[in-house]
């Protein structure tokens, strides 16, 4: 039989066709009126997508570049910061903060867990300048409660900036930056906005812009103030990733159109984002039900909708499941990261995934389980029936 490669990875994710067409047609120079109009439109769309009236900055980098920019622009050597870490990307915040000379206080939870707010409260100090956290820990599939964390900082009257890696949280969680009280919210292009890697973006509160005037860590390419100044005129400080910006505009148009009505055929980005999140919530719930029906155990205690992390059976390397899905069905999922490599596998749901993709992946996983993992005791149909029931329940409610 022929095999069609399908990505079920939490980045890069499947590409939106409209974005691919926009990239192919993006043969424009970046210092022209045509590009300036495109750039200003995309910056405005991003504000609506993340739920803010504050300025948004686009960088030609992966999400880690935006994470570094947040640290370098908002801290000075010797600043005390608090990192909340429960996975590979929480550890990245720690490494970045130390690289720029910060004194790091750490609230650490085991992979797959979320944070005890009492521990966070105890770790906050009067001199804490920033709190760094993931909205969704991609390495474990765990989702952290940003509203509860923001409320804690407000209740404690903390001067700390809340800096959130929303790279896989945006588009899979109902994150609204201004309403929640986030100071910096970071996103990436190869996630829920369904375009290739290479762009990151940061929405920055006025409080964070004010902080930048008093910090003095070194920065040059990632100087957010320089980018903000140029963005007002529809330009970036340095050569932008023109084709990716065109693709991002097309993707945001598509997301808005998911909420189109006869009265408003262009749709709404805020409402389209909600539908994107609801889609991820539905297919992640279908997947969780299916893997449990097949005899697997979920890894995270607080599973989000970006990706489902699943324990491999005892005595089985999770890489075997990853390799068999790819070799037999060209379905690409991911192994665990860091200390969980070989112990878990991860199936993504963010962005351009739908019901049919999910059913196909569950069917392929059933084939792997029945042939290669008889110890689970599963039979054909167990996972698919469980997923179908979840789909019916959720779509009927909707």
From TrEMBL:
Keywords on record: Aminotransferase, Pyridoxal phosphate, Transferase
InterPro entries to which the protein is assigned, alphabetical: Aminotrans_V_dom, Aminotrans_V_PyrdxlP_BS, PyrdxlP-dep_Trfase, PyrdxlP-dep_Trfase_major, PyrdxlP-dep_Trfase_small, SP_NH2Trfase/AEP_transaminase
Pfam families registered for this protein in UniProt: Aminotran_5
UniProt-annotated binding residues for substrate: 346
GO biological process, one term: glycine biosynthetic process, by transamination of glyoxylate
Sites of N6-(pyridoxal phosphate)lysine modification: 191
Entry-linked SUPFAM superfamilies: PLP-dependent transferases (SSF53383)
Keyword Transferase: yes
Names of the cofactor(s): pyridoxal 5'-phosphate
Protein name from the UniProt record: Aspartate aminotransferase-like enzyme
Species: Granulicella mallensis
């Amino acid at each position: 039989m022929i095999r069609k490669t399908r990505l079920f990875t939490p980045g890069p994710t499947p590409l939106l066709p409209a974005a691919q067409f926009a990239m192919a047609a993006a043969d424009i120079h970046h210092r022209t009126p045509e590009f300036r109009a495109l750039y200003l439109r995309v910056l405005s769309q991003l504000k609506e997508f993340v739920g803010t009236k504050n300025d948004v900055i686009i960088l030609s980098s992966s999400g880690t570049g935006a994470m570094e920019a947040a640290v370098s622009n908002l801290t000075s050597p010797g600043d005390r910061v608090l990192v909340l870490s429960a996975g590979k990307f929480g550890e990245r915040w720690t490494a970045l903060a130390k690289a720029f000379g910060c004194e790091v206080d750490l609230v650490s939870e085991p992979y797959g867990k979320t944070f005890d707010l009492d521990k966070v409260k105890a770790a906050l100090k009067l001199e804490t300048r920033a709190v760094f956290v993931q909205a969704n820990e991609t390495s474990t599939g765990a989702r952290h409660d940003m509203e509860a964390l923001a409320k804690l900082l407000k209740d404690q009257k903390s001067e700390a900036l809340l800096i959130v890696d929303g790279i896989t949280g945006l588009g899979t969680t109902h994150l609204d930056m201004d309403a929640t009280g986030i100071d910096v919210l970071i996103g990436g292009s190869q996630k829920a906005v369904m375009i290739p890697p290479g762009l990151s973006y940061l929405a920055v509160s006025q409080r964070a812009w004010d902080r930048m005037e008093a910090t003095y860590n070194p920065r040059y390419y990632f100087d957010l103030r320089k980018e903000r100044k140029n963005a007002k005129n529809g330009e970036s400080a340095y050569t932008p990733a023109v084709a990716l910006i065109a693709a991002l505009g097309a993707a945001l148009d598509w997301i808005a159109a998911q909420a189109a009505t006869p009265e408003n055929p262009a749709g709404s980005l805020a409402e389209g984002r909600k539908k994107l999140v609801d889609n991820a919530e539905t297919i992640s719930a279908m997947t969780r039900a299916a893997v449990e029906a097949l005899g697997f155990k979920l890894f995270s205690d607080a599973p989000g909708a970006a990706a489902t992390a699943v324990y491999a059976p005892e005595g089985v390397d999770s890489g075997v499941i990853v390799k068999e899905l790819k070799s037999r069905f060209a379905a690409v999922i991911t192994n665990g990261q860091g200390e969980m490599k070989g112990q878990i596998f991860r199936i993504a749901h963010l962005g351009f995934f739908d019901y049919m993709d999910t059913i196909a992946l569950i069917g392929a996983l059933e084939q792997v389980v029945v042939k290669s993992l008889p110890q689970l005791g599963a039979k054909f149909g167990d996972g698919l029936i469980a997923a179908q029931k979840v789909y019916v329940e959720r779509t009927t409610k909707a």
